[in-house]
Design goal:
This protein is α/β, with parallel strands linked by helices. The protein has a single domain, classed as 3-Layer(aba) Sandwich (Rossmann fold). It contains 9 helices and 7 strands. A 7-stranded parallel sheet has the order 3-2-1-4-5-6-7, sandwiched between helices. Helix 5 links the parallel strand 4 and strand 5. Helix 1 packs parallel to helix 2, helix 1 crosses helix 9 and helix 3 runs parallel beside helix 5. The longest helix is centred in the middle third of the chain and has 29 residues. The radius of gyration is 18 Å and the shape is globular.
């Protein structure tokens, strides 16, 4: 049986790295993507040594269409026929009331969370169509289902991911290509460090007083979606910490 290939964006840390590790463990070959080549190289070495899979690294900026297309076009025809695309790359920047919003933060979130997902998906989908199969998993957020104070533009970008996921599901089912979204609540990764531009102390406070999710929790949800039989599509899944019933509410221990 042909060994499957998964293409994972934002694979150098957090949920993307956890997905790469779990899929490698399950026998998938991988194309792992990110902007930090040193991290990609280290992950490739770890996964190939431990699981004996084929692993290709692509270092590019998903916000730049020409870089996306050049990276994917550098693959062999066989490697372009990916079975799975995990659109994981995304970020939040800043946490401020709308009137204090930073245009630089807004542009980065819109370009990464929306345009990046579009560029990668649009470039790979024709190969899935030619192959007559495929599964796209879009990593959204509870912020794409609800809003919270000072989350404004980040929430808007993740609402866009939610809408795109449902639209892609409708448009691509005829080929047939599966489309799913996974919407995590508070997951401790590098997310808050990026949001607060390297302020580790401020980022640490986000997860104090409750048991947050970890990246492996989300990777296991992704694997459940991918491991369904051909006639089953999980449209979306929301995973929250027990202490977080909704986006803006976390019950913390005093």
């Amino acid at each position: 049986m042909k060994q499957k290939f998964a293409f994972i964006t934002g694979a150098t840390a957090g949920i993307g790295q956890a997905c790469a590790r779990l899929l490698a463990k399950q026998g998938y070959n991988l194309i792992i993507c990110g902007r930090r080549q040193d991290r990609l190289d280290a992950l490739k070495q770890a996964l190939t040594n431990e699981f004996g899979i084929e692993c290709i690294t692509l270092s590019f900026d998903i916000r730049v269409l020409e870089e996306v297309q050049a990276a994917i076009n550098s693959l062999s025809d066989a490697h372009k026929q990916v079975d799975v695309l995990i659109n994981n790359a995304g970020l939040a920047m800043g946490l401020s009331s709308f009137e204090d919003g930073d245009f630089r933060h807004w542009d980065t979130m819109i370009d990464t969370n929306i345009k990046g997902l579009l560029y990668v998906s649009r470039t790979l989908v024709p190969h899935m169509i030619a192959n007559g199969s495929g599964h796209i998993v879009n990593v959204g957020s509870i912020a794409g289902k609800e809003v919270y104070a000072n989350g404004n533009v980040y929430c808007a970008t993740k609402h866009a991911v939610d809408a795109l996921n449902r639209s892609m599901r409708m448009d691509l089912s005829k080929f047939p290509i599966k489309v799913s979204a996974i919407h995590p609540g508070a997951v401790e990764t590098e997310f808050s460090i990026v949001r607060f531009e390297g302020d580790a102390e401020r980022a640490k406070k986000v997860y104090e007083g409750f048991e947050n999710l970890i990246a492996d929790d989300i990777a296991e949800g992704v694997w459940f979606m991918l491991n369904r039989p051909p006639h089953v599509n999980i449209n979306e899944m929301t995973i929250m910490p027990t202490a977080q019933p909704m986006a803006g509410v976390i019950h913390r221990k005093s």
